[in-house]
Amino acid sequence: MELLLPNPANSTPLTTLGFLDRAATAYGDSPSIVYNNVSYTWLQTHCRCLQMASSLTSLGIQRGQVVSVVAPNVPSMYELQFAVPMSGAVLNNINTRLDAHTLSILLQHSESKIVFVDHHSSSLVLEAISLFPRNTRHPQLILIDDEMVSSGSKSTSSTSHFLDHYEGILEDGDPKFKWVRPKSEWDPMVLNYTSGTTSCPKGVSLSHRAIFIKTMDALVDCFPWGMAAVGGTNICLRKVDLSQIYRLIKQHKVTHMCGAPVVLNMLSNSPDLETLDHHVQILTAGAPPPAPVLARTESMGFVVSHGYGLTETGGMVVSCAWKQKWNKLPLTERARLKSRQGANTVGCTEAEVLDPKTGEPVKRDGKTVGEVVLRGGSLMLGENGWFYTGDVGVIHPDGYLEIKDRSKDIIISGGENISSPEVESVLYSHPAVNEAAVVAKPDKFWGETPCAFVSLKKNGELTQKPSEKEIIQYCRDRLPHYMVPKMVVFESELPKTSTGKVQKFILRRIAKAMS
Amino acid sequence: MELLLPNPANSTPLTTLGFLDRAATAYGDSPSIVYNNVSYTWLQTHCRCLQMASSLTSLGIQRGQVVSVVAPNVPSMYELQFAVPMSGAVLNNINTRLDAHTLSILLQHSESKIVFVDHHSSSLVLEAISLFPRNTRHPQLILIDDEMVSSGSKSTSSTSHFLDHYEGILEDGDPKFKWVRPKSEWDPMVLNYTSGTTSCPKGVSLSHRAIFIKTMDALVDCFPWGMAAVGGTNICLRKVDLSQIYRLIKQHKVTHMCGAPVVLNMLSNSPDLETLDHHVQILTAGAPPPAPVLARTESMGFVVSHGYGLTETGGMVVSCAWKQKWNKLPLTERARLKSRQGANTVGCTEAEVLDPKTGEPVKRDGKTVGEVVLRGGSLMLGENGWFYTGDVGVIHPDGYLEIKDRSKDIIISGGENISSPEVESVLYSHPAVNEAAVVAKPDKFWGETPCAFVSLKKNGELTQKPSEKEIIQYCRDRLPHYMVPKMVVFESELPKTSTGKVQKFILRRIAKAMS
């Protein structure tokens, strides 16, 4: 039969940005964002995002240029998820916990033209800018000062380095602005940086198409663009504050939330611990929820779901779809089942585990390990038809995937990815250090913490042997706090393969035995 | 920043077929299809669809060839939605209410290689095949005999014209069959025929991409591929049987159903009328639900939603997203709001009403009419960046679309689209008829029925003037029952425009006045 070729009416680029136009029509009066004493409707959010997109264009932002955001979960952070790509720019969300040096590298690498800076991060960003090489063009800075919004009065923060306040820039924008549609659904919409497995942060850009497919997965969950698709309400939280979380859950009848396993742990150990008066779906990823945490959180009314994804996959691509009948099983069995990462999401075409030698799928016996590979519309990279995750896993007889070795070197601490080579490079820079290797040490609170193994230079070269405390202090001066090893083990020599590579799996066993 | 080009890992074609693989893993033990005393799990449905896809391949079916289905909502009908495209073939669902002549044309036009035939439609299909021109290749026929499945015994229907029974063909298939993935997401997956506005049925093919985007919209509703995405249960019904509908809703705690307005009318007028013990979402389209019907169905526990779509758009693309606050309004006001078609769905990029002269969007005042145009990933056709629906509508100040004149000529009777030129061409073929025009006449039961206006040939040419009854009988011999005019009005001359076109809007007013 005749071929069905793309044409202008049916090949409109897939994008999630139009969801906001629709939300303004379909859910105009419904609350979109709630934060302290501020609340917006979807009509207002639509209008504010168009205004901000318009202002960005007036400031000279052009299609494909990068605009960065350094802010916690405040309303402007949500608005910028739409407003930045609506101006045609690429949205670059930056972790507020990075150090000035890393931040400076990211801002230079991304060639960011404008940086939105939360007032709590202003000194960090100013320091990062000061580290730019001479004669380098600096990005323009816009100050997010939500306390001004809440109190209605101007902030007293120094704004000499800033172009203006967020609200000032927004007010100048045209609420009738015709937002910049992508020319192709493959146009980049978001640029994220992953710490990756090498010491150099890697830029991961996701297309409008990828974000659309991801959002399809997220329609039943609580991610920014999906919320605009269903007209839900975003409750913003500047930081993890337990009593506030419990208060907001009750006050706004929160249905969905996300949290790293460490957040689950905190929720279940809270002194404010109370049974919820309704069920709350909580999605966790990064590490399986341990049985005692699962038991406590579930008894309180949280319904925990577990998923798996990477920066390169635009978020969760495998989830532990829960079966009704499993509810009847004892807790330990439920925890075991829930600790598995699960099945591919609807938007992820395939998740498989391949034998590294044959390249063929491993036996589905829950024992035979191989490399986890993925393919699907939300992925960033690929070769040979698959994206190779670097993670080692098994497939159970029921088809559910389980990650066995989270990856050769990444350490996940409190939900943050730590690249061990990045920490190692700092250790290697210490004058007394000969060899260094950093591995994950299991930790009840953080999930994992970095544990450093170092061998020191021979006596003749050293004036004095550094202590564990000195090494930790040395790292603290050069790394974000969460990346600093919590323990340093001195070895005369690190275990190595015949080809000279450090055998991290041995160090990991030692670190585990010490935890 | 650097461009993000498609690569083999992230440009896997969008398709809904993989949902079935995932459903087998994630919801394997959950019921997938329930019909009389037959029930399947998602694991079984997955296995059976792979077997049938395998058998189709063994029968010589090749990528892009058409396989047709003439069957009501029985389990095999559901399975074929996956099995046919999983063999690489294009699925062609055919209305069981067509006459043998039309059916014959569709089967020839689609060059269908295999036709799955429900045992209730076997004589119809055999007649359609007998109308094929001599020396034309006939499709192979496979008999769907679900009573055999239910009772476990072979049917006694004559199978001499049939290759085999559905179950026999399926049993020969390989449950480990590697299904045929589309080479491109633009590959056709489904071929539907619309009666359209011309007398010739128009083939509308929808790509894997279009069906994927449509299914995203349908994730919260009850359409075949979406059900596999969420692991829901399909309750099959051979026909609209009120007492059975009520029994099944209670027995299986049905959450979602679809029905033309005529079904809503029947539900609310049922002698078995009972209040449901849980809410049932019912989606209706084709005509707005009238206030009394809305009042009765809502009081019984149905939550009625209203949408708009065309064959060419792969289903609903505009829906009347309901606002909480509207629940407080009086019934007549709620009915008025719900009678509007609404806002574009998440998967539909834009729905607009354009001034036919300027091509610009009309004023959003609920009064200025224009042509309804659409664009989005699930559409079939397009020109000038828009798909022109031929329907006339307005946009209300709140952004909701309302169709004012359902289209210049389509009549929707009991949920069936009737192309007036198709009926007119039969009338024109009558020896006594000079001019003919068929328009919709409002009908409490069917929504609309076809009403014919004819002028007869002058006396000199006629031996005898035909009666209304004779004209109706003449149509009945040549058209499917539902397309036959229920009323024939004789006029000396039909009202026409200066360019000679019949002014149907005048005839519609007359028909309305007579109803």
TrEMBL record, chains A, B:
The lineage of its organism: Eukaryota, Viridiplantae, Streptophyta, Embryophyta, Tracheophyta. Pfam families: AMP-binding (PF00501), AMP-binding_C (PF13193). This is AMP-dependent synthetase/ligase domain-containing protein. It comes from Gossypium tomentosum. One of its GO terms (molecular function) is ligase activity. Residues 21-382 form the AMP-dependent synthetase/ligase domain. The keyword Ligase applies. Residues 422-501 form the AMP-binding enzyme C-terminal domain. PROSITE patterns: AMP_BINDING. SUPFAM superfamilies: Acetyl-CoA synthetase-like (SSF56801). Keywords: Ligase. The keyword Ligase applies. Belongs to the ATP-dependent AMP-binding enzyme family.
